[in-house]
Amino acid sequence: MIRFYCSLLILLLSVGTLLAQQGTIKGRVYSSKSNAPLELATVRVQGSNLGATTDIEGSFVISGVNPGFIRLIVTMLGYETTTSAEVQVVGNQMSFIDIALDEASTNLAEVVVRPRVRLKRAESPLSIQTLSLKQIEKSAGTNRDISKLVQRLPGVGATDLNRNDLIVRGGGPSENVFYLDGIEIPVINHFATQGASGGIVGMINPDFVREIDFYTGAFPASRGNTLSSVMEIKQRDGDADRIRINATVGASDAGLTVEGPLGSKSTFIVSTRQSYLQWLFKAMDLPVLPTYNDFQVKYKYRINAYNELSIVGIGAIDNMRLNTQLQATGTEAQRYILGYLPEYKQWNYTVGAVYKHYGEGHIDNWILSRNMRRNSSVKHQDNDIALPKLSEYESDETENKLRYERVYTTLPFKLSLGAGLRYASYTNRSEQVAYQSGQVVSLSYDAQIKQLAYSAFAQASDEYLDKRLKLSLGLNLVGNTLNSTMSNPLPQLSPRLSASFALSDDVDLNANLGRYAMQPSYTSMGYRASDGNYVNKDRLRYIMSNQAVLGAEYHPGEHLRFSAEGFYKSYSAYPISEVEGVSLASKGTEYGQVGAEAVLSTGWGRAYGVEVVARLLPWNEFSATATYTLFRSEFTDKSGVYRPSSWDAGQMINLLASYRLGKSWYLSASWRYIGGAPYTPIDMELSTNKAAWAVTNQAYLDYARFNTLRLPAKHQLDLRLDKEFYFKHWMLNLYVDVQNAYLSSYVSSPIYTNQDASGQVMDDPTDPQRQQLRQLDYYSKLIFPTLGLIVKL
Questions:
Q1: Can you list the positions of beta strands (E) in 39-173?
Q2: Tell me: the pLDDT tens digits for 6-61?
Q3: Least confident residue range of 176-185, 282-291, 470-479, 496-505
Q4: pLDDT above 90 coverage of the chain, percent
Q5: What is the CA radius of gyration of the chain?
Q6: Pick from 357, 454, 356: nearest CA to 401
Q7: In the chain, pLDDT over 70 holds for what percent of residues?
Q8: Which of 30, 366, 438, 746 is the most buried (most CB within 10 A)?
Q9: Neighbour-count burial for 535-547, b at 16+ CB within 10 Å, e otherwise
Q10: DSSP-derived secondary structure letter, 706
Q11: How many beta carbons lie within 10 A of that of residue 765, not counting itself?
Q12: Contact 82/111 with Cβ under 8 angstroms?
């Protein structure tokens, strides 16, 4: 396959100057309040003289646009000047975009000359980043994976640069929520950790994405059940002109996307992707062989000028087998991984509908959805299915949700409110062998819980002092029927206040104070001990967090942006493992599940730090971003002692740059630095016990010394080069993406084996019940090149 790609690349480079086609943009401009078309609005391509004026239907067409990523600027008397989301123009094809305009609050009879006031969301004036289409498509080291791209944002880290866990401002990977066109989805990654948000490969197809809003704080009141981040993924509609096909071959999968019209009022877009990661991992002699498939669909029906319906679906099937051939031929580290890691099978889906109605003085949204996920694993002794099982696990999570939201559009201030219901079912069937109280015991349970959860919110926002001062006050309430304490929503009362003040034309001051609530994971709520008791049911509480953010922005010109934010997060009622005595806030980046154990809602935590960002917006085809985050993250153990969390890396640096070279060549680079994460030494007394080792085939951690040691810092350079070719009826994009370009070494926490170099168990000569351990070198030093191909017809 590599020879085929190289031959194809050489052939196409030899004809690279052929057919430099231009594209066309078609769209509609409408009122955000009424959905009514706006006639005589002026639409122009940012940075050029190309433009058009909308007709009576609010439609416009702009031809002769050079291929690439562009934005449109729309102006109209009585409305705010608006910059559109980014849109990709493809040569010899038509691109579509709809643009909503907000009414200007200034009375037209008052002709006021005032300084330029930047548009800012009153509800969340800080701690929000918007990812554009170009960033998703062209960023180095991400291979069009949304989770990996988000990890480059300020305040967002990762314990392993090869995983998709989102560690936001020192919070755990379970503290994030995701919305797809307003529909909450439980996971966005393949091989996700149940009870957390991580995984190894993203399952959101970037062909669907228009842009992404990512909140690291100051969450809107309408978005509950989160403590660290909210990801709003906004999908584009299918092509309204004709049927189009997009085929991709990337780092780990091949995909096909089809879109087009279904009549004059509706469009669709549907995709499927199949991985070949298992073949790549097998060729690289890696101990795991992951296989995944995913599916995605969106249907949009414009019923009339005041009503529209969207149907969204997404699903994935994941299987992870073990490369058992390496048990005989692999390295000691590979044999160690095969010794303890089980095989996993997972699948999940979400399907939902969004009905939007533009009424007189308000906009209503009804959101109905269902999601389900199954997580299962099995581990046989010596990975031989003829031998007894060491563990077997299967769990189902199902949620049915109904949410209503209303935004009032004719009041003198902005007001939104809403409520929601969620009916959940959780089952868990588990059997495992464990070492407890000096002996090997068999544990099993069959658990099932059903739960009704409810929520409500309201948020009011307004502007003062000629739009220089913006204030927003929000309130959120949540509760569920797990126990009497959690069913009362008053302890989870969550107010939040945001303020933004334009100190001058170029300087903004922003602040937010808020209280947030998050439900514990279903794995904890549904845990059932071997004696049949649901030990967590009556003692679990909502996890609460009080947060404060203060920031400043400086905009010295059209192309430069500087910002700084300081944040403080305090946690209460965080679940603590009853056996291990450590906070669940430090868990969630392994395969399988987290939280399926007896816990106590007695934990406290704190995370605080500062983020500094400098941006050069597109200037002469060049753009760059530099971010620096300095932070601390720590949570209490069972004794109430604060200990560093597993994400307490101290500091993070991200340097990003991209340059359009001309003739449809793109170059991008990304350099990341993450400080040394803490880790826990092993319990040598327990780990050298042969009976205890035989249960897990790995060393036991010494939780009395939790996170007392630190790893070296990690850093990595990624490079990417794109070339686009435009032919008469189709476009081809070839790219080379090189991760870890200068072969940086990643040192992981130490691993141990009970075998000598020849594979024999190292008995303790003084005690036949014990063994000796030997530390293995365990680090990664790999360069990962990718040849990618995208065809658009």
A1: 42-45, 51-53, 59-65, 68-70, 72-75, 82-83, 87-89, 94-101, 128-131, 156-157, 167-168
A2: 554 555 555 444 455 788 899 999 999 999 999 999 999 988 889 999 999 999 99
A3: 282-291
A4: 69
A5: 27
A6: 454
A7: 95
A8: 30
A9: bbbeebbbbbbeb
A10: T
A11: 8
A12: no
The token pair that represents 572 in the structure block: 């209460």
Asked whether 179 and 223 are in contact (CB, 8 A), the reply is: yes
- pTM recorded for the entire structure: 0.93
Provide the 3-class DSSP secondary structure of residue 687. Answer: helix
**Which of these, 88, 94, 102, lies nearest to 41 by C-alpha position?**
102
Of 600, 597, 596, 553, nearest in space to 572 by CA: 600
**Can you tell me the mean pLDDT for 624-642?**
96
Please state, in angstroms and as integers, the Cα–Cα distance from residue 776 to each residue in 670, 697, 713, 748, 755, following that order: 31, 14, 20, 11, 11
Tokens 């967002």 sit on residue: 156
User: Which pLDDT band holds residue 252 (cuts at 50, 70, 90)?
Assistant: confident
Q: What share of the chain is helix, strand, coil (3-state, %, to 5)?
A: 10, 55, 35
The answer to whether the beta carbons of residues 193 and 199 sit under 8 Å apart is: yes
d(CA 13, CA 3): 15
Contacts of 768 (CB under 8 A, 6+ apart): none
Please report which confidence band the pLDDT of residue 763 belongs to, taking 50, 70 and 90 as the band edges: very high
Residue 100 Cα to chain centre, angstroms: 26
Q: What contacts 24+ positions apart, CB below 8 Å, involve 380-384? A: 382/327, 383/322, 383/324, 383/327, 383/338
SS3 721: strand
Structure tokens at 193: 């950790």
739: region left, alpha or beta (phi > 0 left; psi from -120 to 50 alpha): beta
- Report whether pLDDT(92) > 50: yes
Q: pLDDT confidence of 729, banded at 50, 70, 90?
A: confident
Q: Which of 147-151, 239-243, 450-454 has the lowest mean pLDDT?
A: 239-243
Calpha distance 283→463 (Å, rounded): 60
Residue 21 vs residues 11, 54, 137, 230, 730: alpha-carbon distances, Å? 19, 25, 20, 39, 10
Residues linked to residue 231 through DSSP beta bridges, in sequence order: 178, 214
DSSP 331-346: -HHHHHHHHH--EEEE
